[in-house]
Amino acid sequence: MQVDWTIDMPTIMAILSLVFVVLIFAYEQRQTRKQLKIQNFSDYTSRYQDIIVNLPFDVMDEDFDIDSLEKDERERCLKWMKAYFDLCAEEYFLNRKGVIDRDIWLDWKEGMVYVFNRPAFLKGWKIVSRHRDIYSSFKPFVAGNILRERTPDA
User: Fold this and answer.
1) What span, in angstroms and rounded, lies between the C-alpha atoms of 119 and 105?
2) Domain around 48
3) CB 137 within 8 A of CB 90
4) CB 72 within 8 Å of CB 103
5) Which residue, among 112, 90, 110, has the nearest Cα to 100 in the 3D structure?
6) What is the pLDDT of residues 27-71, one digit of tens each?
7) Is residue 152 part of a domain?
8) Residue 90: partners with Cβ closer than 8 Å, 6 or more residues away
9) What is the distance between the alpha carbons of residues 92 and 86, in angstroms, rounded to a whole number?
10) Do 80 and 113 touch, CB atoms closer than 8 A?
11) Is 38 contained in some domain?
12) Residue 70 in domain
């Protein structure tokens, strides 16, 4: 018994059309994922900028003392620090779920190391994190990976 391997033109066209549609679909999916990553990065960058512009200009300085602020200004500063810590916690949780790009996470983590270790943010973290149960798994991450030991002269 011999098998007839000939395929008629309509069948060939149908197969080629199907392959073309699958390739287009795969390409569109890839482009959509890329666009979502860009949108996510843009959203987090925008939120970060909003936080930073609402904090005192010199908040990153070594000699910035949050306790020297008037009560209302201190509370406002802590509110925006809390917003920053919440944003960092979101990034941390998204990273754990594998939702964000590794390079973006490494850049974000590097920024966290810098910001969390500024004297004002160290104090702010101690105050804010005491009252935030949602930080239960984020707190150990911060303690083990973000905060550096500080010597009295540092």
Assistant:
1) 23
2) 9-146
3) no
4) no
5) 90
6) 898 887 778 777 877 888 899 999 999 999 999 999 999 999 999
7) no
8) 44
9) 10
10) no
11) yes
12) yes
112 CB-contact burial (10 Å; exposed 0-12 / middle 13-18 / buried 19+): buried
In a domain, 154, yes or no: no
Q: How far is CA 98 from CA 19, 41, 103, 112, 127, in A?
A: 30, 14, 12, 19, 30
Tell me if 98 sits within 8 A of 104, measured CB to CB. Answer: no
Number of domains into which the chain is organized: 1
Distance (Å, whole) CA 19 – CA 15: 6
The structure's pTM equals 0.76
How far apart CA 148 and CA 17 sit, in angstroms, is 59
Token duo for residue 139: 């707190």
Tens-digit pLDDT profile for residues 90-112: 999 999 999 888 988 999 999 99
